[in-house]
């Protein structure tokens, strides 16, 4: 595996290989890698000749008072994991490399970003799309891999790629979980000991909500069931529990095949998100 830190160098490496007909799978990350990221690499490795992973803690997607400086970083450990997983090129640019000058151009993600995490993090998804457009332009991947844990982000990225006719296609990869059901996240290490013991209750509550839905409980009541379970089993503060059409993220679910049941919970030093995608077509296999 080769570590690359400059945009020009990465382009000089990849462009000749693309001209030879070799395909590129891309895994963009903010580092502090875990098994969820490795699953993305594994999927990219299956499908493409070359796997590129980026590690860049993007300041553009952190709002005032958020945890940019505190976001966990461990480049050496990340490089070891990426190499073992089969990454060919690990792109680790500096902030100055990615943002060499102040830009007045913004990317506004629209209504999809006004709900769920976007409601309490204004500007967050603007920054996500800004850095992804740069990364997609630099790497020019055939396919880019994202986990379903960040389902709102994934829906917005899919819309962005489709609406602007970007060349890359987007691959969805299921959420990777701990044995107790907690979604793997770089922020999990910031949970206090008692909070880590509580955090698996988020997935249990969502699973309870899914069962209730397929047993005939109206979706509005499902959200209340999930909220009550999280409140009773954790000391965290609920940011939201919501049900929306997926991937449109519209409140009207009458004409959708899937809905997302999603929750965000703020603990002392970490905000955790999780979700379950449910089919609106109820049959025995869904229960």
From TrEMBL:
Reaction(s) catalysed by this chain's protein: (R)-pantoate + beta-alanine + ATP = (R)-pantothenate + AMP + diphosphate + H(+)
Gene3D superfamilies: HUPs (3.40.50.620), Pantoate-beta-alanine ligase, C-terminal domain (3.30.1300.10)
CDD domains: PanC
Key word Cytoplasm present: yes
InterPro entries assigned: Cyt_trans-like (IPR004821), Pantoate_ligase (IPR003721), Pantoate_ligase_C (IPR042176), Rossmann-like_a/b/a_fold (IPR014729)
Family matches, as Pfam families: Pantoate_ligase (PF02569)
Positions bound to ATP: 30-37, 147-150, 176, 184-187
The entry's keywords: ATP-binding, Cytoplasm, Ligase, Nucleotide-binding, Pantothenate biosynthesis
Pathway(s) where this gene product acts: Cofactor biosynthesis; (R)-pantothenate biosynthesis; (R)-pantothenate from (R)-pantoate and beta-alanine: step 1/1
Top-rank taxon: Bacteria
Broad class of where this protein is predominantly found: cytoplasm
Keyword Thylakoid found: no
Active site residues of this protein: 37
Subcellular location: Cytoplasm
Binding site for beta-alanine: 61
Annotated binding of (R)-pantoate, by residue: 61, 153
UniProt GO molecular function: ligase activity
EC number: 6.3.2.1
Further remark: The reaction proceeds by a bi uni uni bi ping pong mechanism.
Record note on quaternary structure: Homodimer.
Cited function: Catalyzes the condensation of pantoate with beta-alanine in an ATP-dependent reaction via a pantoyl-adenylate intermediate.
Family: Belongs to the pantothenate synthetase family.
The protein, known as: Pantothenate synthetase
Organism per entry: Sporosarcina ureae
Native organism taxonomy: Bacteria, Bacillati, Bacillota, Bacilli, Bacillales
